[in-house]
Every structure is written in C-alpha cells, then in structure tokens.
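Recall the central idea of this unit: under ordinary conditions, the amino acid sequence of a chain determines the structure it adopts. In this exercise we apply that idea directly, starting from the sequence alone.
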Amino acid sequence: MSLLEIKNLSVRFRVKRAWGKSSYLHAVDDVSLSVPRGQTLALVGESGSGKTTAALAAARLVPAAGGSVMLGDTDLLKLEGEALRQARARVQVIFQDPYSSLNPRLRAGAIVREPMDALGTPDKPDRDARVAELFAQVGLRPEQRALFPHQFSGGQRQRIGIARALATSPDLIVCDEAVSALDVAVQAQILNLLRRLQTDLGLTYLFISHDLGVVQHMSDRVAVMYMGRIVEEADRIALFSNPQHPYTQALLAAVPSVERAKRSGVKMTGEAPDPLNPPPGCMFASRCPKVQPSCKASPPPLDAQAPDHRVACFFPGE
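Accordingly, the structure predicted from this sequence is:
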C-alpha cells in the first residue's frame, strides 16, 4: 500500500529576463511517483536535476504550481492554515548540512523538543521523556542534551537532526542529501542508523542523493531525474543491473564501484539545454550518444519497459 502518491507535480520559478521581461523555469515538470509504506524511494540525478525541489514541494516547503501529493488520504497541496500545520507533524525533513540546520543558540535537547512545542504533540509532561528516548534511539548520551551544536562533531549533529525529525512520530521522512557533508566512515554509521530506525519504527523515506553507492545501499526503488523530469524508475536491483535510459547508464558508468556500469562505457557528450528555453523533444537529446532525429521532434513518454520499470526513451536498452 502506498503511503505517498505524487501525481503530475510541477514547480516553476519566475525568472526576470532582459528588458523587463520574465519567463518561468520549470524546476519540476509533471512528476508522478509512489512510495509504499515502510520502504525507501531514492531520487537521483545531477545537481540541478530537480530532485530536491520535487521532494521539498511534496513536503510543502516549496510552493507547487500543480499536481497532487497524497499522504494517505490527505492531499497536502490543498491544505492551508491550521490543517497544514497539523499535517506537518506527519512529514519531517533531515537536511543536508548538519552545521547550518541546527540553531546554534539552542541546546541539543531544546532543538529536539522544538517540533513538539511547535506542533503541540505529545502532551507537555511527556516531552522531556520523549527527548530522552529519542537521544537513546539515535545513539547520543543523556548528558549531551545540555550541550550546544558547536560542541558536537558533524556525525553527532546529524544524529540530532535525525532525532528532531523523529520527534513528532512522522509517517514520512525526507532525507535531503543527509550524509553528503559527512566523512565516509561517518556516512556508513548514519546510513546504518537510518536503516535500523526504518526497521524498528516502520518509517518511510524519500531519499535524495547524487551518490549512487549510497542509493544502492539504502533504497528499495530508484527514480532518476533529469532537467526536472523522471527519465527512469525501477526497483533498485533492476535499475543497477539493467539500466535502460542512456542518462542512467552514463550516471552508473561514472561510479567506479559499479562493475556492470563500467562495462557499458556510456558517456555523455555535449551541453545541457537552456532550462529557460527547453527543446521541443527529449531534454537529453543534446548529450545522448544514441540520439536520433525523432528524439528532437517530441518528448518521449515515461512508459513501462518491464513490470515496475518505467523509461522515458524512444530507444531504451543497451
């Protein structure tokens, strides 16, 4: 059963041009995704592909231009005022930078308690006990609740961020490049912590990353984004063992540890199109080694090439 159902989500930003004119940058364009309860869907792609914007729009942290975001039976995009404030307890975010995402003027215990005070859950007498429980769950000592963020290491700060995200017992957690600012050894510790918490608490993750090694370790399904659109979506094993879109193949070819991808030898050429003046056909056509005239005429639909494997390409496969 799907916990999160995103349909035709679009995000656009107004950009001023020369001579007072303005146009729109389509950061997310008609994205549809489904995340089953208790599983992890990873959004991957280069910087600027729209993966973080799509996830933050689903969490109502970035305004959406259209579409729907169903969390259970609730369309988050239709909520306003008090209803939206209460719904925020069900969706929490672990941010990328543990150094800037914590208030330096608050002690660690107060940082973790802050979402409870803001959303009014649980009851006041239970909040200190809940903070102590969360510190234990993420591997921090009780006495560390009295310390300030600058007294922690990067990995410990991210543990505080994880505890804060868990404070309201959310249904969905958005992990926005949650380990990219950490050392490799600390990354492994945090990823193992996230997996253990998912097993113990039945959490559902929307996991944003550009690191395919991390994605291979964490995800159940993977969606690949390019220029604001989904170009391929499949379960983790199918995507890493048999990528169908040339962009996915090129991404995997750039990862030295993925032997299957190294053998494919797919490389991107050319330049990415202007996002303010997108081409009429496939957005990847200017960089694709397999481009054909038909690719430049109309955009390929995101069609199923196999059960649970969708690809937006006229010539998928090897």
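The mean pLDDT is 92.
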